[in-house]
Amino acid sequence: MKVLRAVRQAPFTAKIGLFLIGLNLVAVVGAPWIARYGETQVVGDQWLPGFWDPASEPDGVHAFLGTDQLGRDLFSRLVYGARNSILIALATTALSFTLGVTSGMVAATSRGWVDQIMSRTVDILMGFPTLIFALMLLAVLGSSIPVLIGVIALLDATRVFRLSRALGIDLESQEYIELARLRGERTGWIVLHEILPNATGPLAAEFGLRFCFVFLFIATLSFLGLGIQPPTADWGSMVRENASAISFGILTPLFPASAIAILTVAVNLVVDWFIRFTGDAHHGR
Q1: In CA terms, which of 11, 87, 121, 248 is 20 to 30 Å from 67?
Q2: How do residues 216-235 score in pLDDT, each as one tens digit?
Q3: Sign of dihedral through CA atoms 4, 271, 33, 49?
């Protein structure tokens, strides 16, 4: 009930963001039923016009947004691309948060040489340009989906580590943590029951921001040819594959590019509202 009340009281921009995210989630869950054609099914000639052109149904083929460079239905590819892009980005973000939060809390509560080794290792990893480092690793290890998730999660976990370590150090100095230690509570219990519950707001907001970064990063790698590999539908690779259509005045690559931009803006709108909402709730206690 509190969640529904918060959504009803959310600003208009946040409601727009939630609505757009909801549409994408519907595509993720219902891709096989929403898409008229299969993910790799060829339905006509390349770059057939979409609904805006009177000749959009040549030879009885109905392609709402037209076809891509191989004659596949663009709308169906966009729907399947939403499922692939979003699920892989979510899996990567979840893994990076698991690694980053766990290691950050260990460093914050252990201090000493454990903190120093972990912090210096993260500093070394963050010293490399993220895109160049990812391209190098993917070129060596290959571009399979498990490798892609693992590489990006490892690189992104360094940012999560810095935030969670800072939160852990700040919260560990609070009086209720000292009281828990005096009661004889173990470090693991303190982290799970005292530190993490009080760090939920900042970490949740950071999760949304990290998802945007990972989502755009995967799209960038796919555009460069080292991300999600064809024939799997992915918005980044769809832009790359149809980029030459712009030279002929064909709008095909603008649709996946717009889908990337719309989802990124929607998540940022919701994250911005969530940060303000949790901040107001904290000050109101």
Answers
A1: 87
A2: 999 999 888 888 888 888 99
A3: positive
Residue whose tokens read 């603008």: 254
Domain that holds residue 185: 72-284
Task: Write the CB contacts of 189 (distance below 8 Å, at least 6 apart in sequence).
Answer: 180
Residue 53 amino acid letter: D
**Which residues are 73's β-sheet partners?**
67
Distance CA 168, CA 40 (A): 47
Cβ neighbourhood burial of 66 (10 Å; 0-12, 13-18, 19+):
buried
Dihedral (CA of 185, 186, 190, 193) sign = negative
Q: Is residue 218 part of a domain?
A: yes
pTM recorded for the entire structure: 0.87
How do residues 147-186 score in pLDDT, each as one tens digit? Answer: 999 999 999 999 999 999 998 888 877 777 778 777 777 7
Q: Is the dihedral of CA 92, 95, 99, 105 positive or negative?
A: positive
Q: Is residue 170 part of a domain?
A: yes
- CATH classification of the domain holding 237: 1.10.3720.10
If one counts every other C-beta atom within 10 angstroms of the C-beta of residue 132, the result is 9
**CA dist 284 to 24, 146, 257, Å?**
34, 44, 41
Is 122 within the bounds of a domain? yes
On whether residue 220 sits in a domain, the answer given is yes
Number of domains in the chain: 1
d(CA 101, CA 119): 13
Q: CA-CA distance, 81 to 78, in Å (whole number)?
A: 5
| 84-98 average pLDDT score | 94
